[in-house]
Design a protein that fits this description.
Layout: E1 17-19, E2 25-27, H1 28-34, E3 40-42, E4 49-51, E5 58-59, H2 61-106
Antiparallel strand pairs: 1-2, 1-5, 3-4
Organism: Plectus sambesii
Keywords: Metal-binding, Zinc, Zinc-finger
Pfam families: zf-RING_5 (PF14634)
Length: about 110
Amino acid sequence: MDCSICFEAYDDGSRVPKQLSCGHSLCARCATACADSESRLRCPQCQKVTLAPENTFTTNYELLNFLMMSKANQQKKRVTFVRQEANESTDLLRTSLKLVKGIDQQH
């Protein structure tokens, strides 16, 4: 999922999702940058104003946890895919070696 202002993916660093009073989220960097001098921020989606004294926007932990779990699942899928590819390559190599040994034994 991406911030609706900068369109960068949320992360657990400077792009951590911050929840506005309307329920929408922005990344921390954009929330801080877009707040006015009185710590008010107008939601880019619904236009509701959020007040956050000293830019203390609440972290959207539910969204952050969902994103981190989703990222972990994608990494597991990649590891599984790489293992499958390695197993298939190993099987192909073994078959090729058997064929080469068979040809050498015939000569």
